[in-house]
Amino acid sequence: MKISPIQIQASSAKLKSQLSADPMLITETGYHSVMNRLEQITAGDVEIIEITKEPEEDLVELRQNVAVIRIHGVIAKGLEDWEKRWFGMVDIDDIREDLNRPEVVAADHVVLDINSPGGFTTGVHELATEISQRNQLVTSFTEGDMASAAYYIGCAGSQVISTASAAIGSVGVYVVLTDSSQAWREAGYSREVIKSGEHKGGGVEGVAISESYRASVQQMVDSLGEEFRAFVVSNRPTIDFDNLQGQVFLGRDALSLGFVDAVANSLSDVVSQLVD
Predict the structure, then answer these.
(1) Could you state, in order of their start, the residue ranges of all structural domains in the chain?
(2) Which of 67, 114, 214, 230 has the smallest CB count inside 10 Å?
(3) CATH T-level topology, domain 8-173+220-274
């Protein structure tokens, strides 16, 4: 099966739209990196070729009594297999499926090998809750990024370990709203939404963002943010609330602030200490 350039551009437009309106659990750097890639594709500024659908890469590695699950890339839910490869993303449902594989359940220890700036909100809280309630030792490790949605998931582990130079934290939620009404007017268009419900249609392109719609989005962001912080504190009670305001910390500093339990040089070192 081949995925056509048209399909890739359509998927890019869909993801771009979500990034422009949905609540996000991602660092600003991660957000801009993904958006730039999607804008290049949808604008036709990069060469897009047909790609062949291939068997999905196995993200689980067994090392004696330790199961290592790789969680690399922007976190989302409901992705097509080719979307994960093309956009470098990881699906919540795949992580859950890997955690429930018989060989993983039978392992003495699970290591989540995380390198992600975060992602979308959908499904993250539920997966993190499942991990925190797991009747199995889970170590979350990163030598890159464990930020926002990735830290949401990572802090659910029995212990959190990072390298000294890793990026940790970014606890918070945001939504990016674009008011394009002036651009539409300058182009000679006026757009109106006939609606039922005060907040309905508030984010439609070309329509001015009302204060009531902005307030409703802020309420949703605040609710998700409070849920995120409460979960982190329930798993990492020594973290000061002032450090849960979206900051990103180096691993060496995250250790003293309570975000991680230890600093290690590599994934191999961590697994070696866990292997019988």
Answers:
(1) 8-173+220-274
(2) 230
(3) 2-enoyl-CoA Hydratase; Chain A, domain 1 (3.90.226)
Q: Do β-strands 248-250 and 109-115 pair in parallel, antiparallel, or remain unpaired?
A: unpaired
Q: What's the whole-model pTM score?
A: 0.90
Which residues does residue 116 pair with via DSSP β-bridges, in sequence order?
Answer: 146
Number of helical (H) and strand (E) elements in the chain, helices listed first? 11, 15
CB-CB contact of 239 with 260 (8 Å): no
Single out the residue of 131, 152, 132, 151 nearest to residue 142, CA to CA: 151
**What length is written for the chain?**
276
Give pLDDT tens digits along the chain (276 positions).
Answer: 566 777 777 777 777 777 777 899 999 999 888 888 777 777 766 565 555 555 567 889 999 999 999 999 999 998 887 778 777 899 999 999 999 999 999 999 999 999 999 999 999 999 999 999 999 999 999 999 999 999 999 999 999 999 999 999 999 999 998 888 888 888 888 888 888 888 788 878 888 888 888 999 999 999 999 999 999 999 999 999 999 999 999 999 999 999 999 999 999 999 999 986
